[in-house]
């Protein structure tokens, strides 16, 4: 008899986003506000740098950490934009997307039985990465009233002797929530005292609206406990190039490199050349795309609120986390019925954790025209729900009246 593969892998649940998209892709004429990637193509001069690198025969492995020139550009970018300093030789690893970086952090830090604090709702890749190390995710519920921020009192309560790390992702997928410098200031003493690691997924850092991006890595007291994950997918519209990176202390970086060098060798070479161009000359493109996202966000939030779906103004990413509780449908039913009746695809909040119930994630990484059309359809869907409810209510009243009359 053939032996059973890893139980930890067998136990991993399929992504709630995928499940929904398989359903959507089987239908024709669907407007999708579900995707988690920019609708923009990679700026042409960046693509061209990748193409040129191939034409010039740069088709070999690079150093395990990635091209030194790229690491120098990454170091410069973080210094100039966020005031954080990382040594290109010892503290940076270029990875295959932020996705590899998440896995790398978990493999490097975790041992069986360790607890890892995860925020709920959260990005879907964290829990499986923790479970694969036979560690235990411990969830902190985030609330709409406090803009889905991590509060110091909740963090303090969640830390035990077994806690090894916390995974943060601000600006947040799926909520669009952002933490300010003042918010982080309150967490610093708790993190310092506990000695836990912070895996800080900052992939949406450049898509921070209304204020400046802040990071725990900006606090010297805890900088060595923080592993920053970032990448080119979101801000530079480079999802398909598969390029990200980690910034951390030397010690952690050298441990992560042990895994990366055997599992990956080096991130794709043409993508690394394209990324150098992105960091050197692509910032105006980032700002241009950001302006577009902001315009779309404003339209979407205002339309949703007008139709009665109370929605916080998200301060980052390209997602809105809309409260659908007035519809009295579960998140899953809301999204399934909206897809079936109006052919609009969005993602149930529960795909991101149990506390996502009552919410849906709507992506505005799509054209203004699509957003307008989708909003009309969502509004129509809510009206039909209202009419149904009125009819149900009238039927109930009629029943009670008949009973009264018959007494
Ligand atoms: N972190 C978050 C929060 C994300 O939303 C994503 C992409 N959806 C990733 C990491 C991974 O991105 P990539 O591997 O393309 O860099």
UniProtKB/TrEMBL annotation:
Organism: Ileibacterium valens
Similarity comment: Belongs to the class-I pyridoxal-phosphate-dependent aminotransferase family.
Domain Aminotransferase class I/classII large: 29-378
UniProt-recorded Gene Ontology molecular function terms: pyridoxal phosphate binding; transaminase activity
Keyword Transferase applies: yes
Keyword check for Transferase: yes
Example GO biological process: amino acid metabolic process
Keyword entries, A-Z: Aminotransferase, Pyridoxal phosphate, Transferase
Name assigned to this protein: Aminotransferase
